[in-house]
């Protein structure tokens, strides 16, 4: 059995370290906030799981497990402000990634809950580099390594250097991408509901400094990508592989921007009210 946590479906994924403000007005999610506020403030349980909606706009009208992507991210509550109408304005920050094993639907509590298993980040340099065998020059063996270093240490050093180069390349691509999008005068989100590419992005880029993992999550959350693209980035546990995919996506988006002068159209623009037919 995995751990059971509250779920909050959204139109786009949440990423670790990314700030997510929410206005809570639906009765079931008002109840969710009240349940979280009833927990000890000093504890670490004031969070819920954000999962992106794979299909449809009303998850409860279809099978929830089929309507949601299977990898999500916790939203840790940082501030809560109650509104005169009984709703809440809350600020959350992305926390830990998880895989959704099952969805629990019940009358009490009225919100969805998910059975989840937690996903580990591959933070070690050699893990983040993926296949470290390919990082070594053919013919380099233990005998060729200086006596005060092990082969594993050399592999880790090469991996770290490779990750730094990749991180700088993605940063440069993203900076160019932000400039191109700003030049079009658009700051909208490809699938709606997510962060926009705007002047604030430059400030956030400075804030991540030289942290490749933080950079990868900033790019994933701020670039005007489809939900499928963002979901693939969220599901990737290795920073190096996430950055590699982002480099590919940013080059694709830059080509579209420069040749078509356009960004993806929000899918919600095609939504129509549901009918009985």
Automatic annotation (TrEMBL):
Q: Which domain of life is it from?
A: Bacteria
Name the species this protein comes from.
Answer: Blastococcus deserti
Q: What Pfam families does UniProt report for this protein, alphabetically?
A: LON_substr_bdg
SUPFAM superfamilies according to UniProt: PUA domain-like
SMART domains given for it? LON
Q: What is this protein called?
A: LON peptidase substrate-binding domain-containing protein
Ranges of residues in domain Lon N-terminal: 2-254
């Amino acid at each position: 059995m995995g751990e059971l946590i509250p779920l909050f479906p959204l139109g786009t994924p949440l990423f670790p370290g990314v700030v997510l403000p929410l206005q809570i007005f639906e009765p079931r999610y008002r109840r969710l906030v009240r349940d979280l506020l009833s927990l000890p403030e000093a504890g670490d349980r004031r969070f819920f799981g954000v999962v992106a909606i794979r299909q449809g706009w009303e998850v409860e009208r279809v099978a929830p497990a089929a309507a949601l992507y299977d990898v999500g991210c916790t939203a840790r509550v940082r501030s809560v402000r109650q509104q005169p109408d009984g709703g809440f304005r809350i600020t959350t920050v992305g926390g830990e990634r998880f895989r959704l094993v099952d969805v629990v639907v019940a009358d009490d509590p009225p919100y969805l809950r998910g059975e989840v298993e937690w996903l580990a980040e591959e933070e070690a340099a050699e893990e983040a580099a993926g296949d470290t065998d390919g990082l070594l020059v053919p013919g380099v063996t233990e005998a060729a390594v200086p006596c005060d270093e092990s082969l594993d240490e050399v592999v880790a050093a090469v991996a770290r250097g490779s990750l730094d180069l990749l991180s700088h390349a993605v940063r440069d691509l993203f900076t160019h991408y932000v400039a191109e999008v700003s030049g079009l005068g658009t700051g909208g989100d490809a699938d709606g509901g997510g962060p926009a590419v705007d002047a604030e992005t430059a400030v956030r880029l400075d804030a991540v400094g030289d942290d490749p993992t933080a950079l990868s999550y900033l790019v994933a959350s701020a670039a005007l990508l489809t939900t499928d693209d963002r979901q693939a980035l969220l599901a990737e546990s290795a920073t190096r592989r996430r950055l590699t995919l982002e480099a590919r996506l940013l080059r694709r988006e830059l080509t579209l921007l420069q040749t078509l002068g356009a960004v993806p159209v929000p899918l919600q623009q095609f939504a129509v009210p549901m009918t009985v037919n």
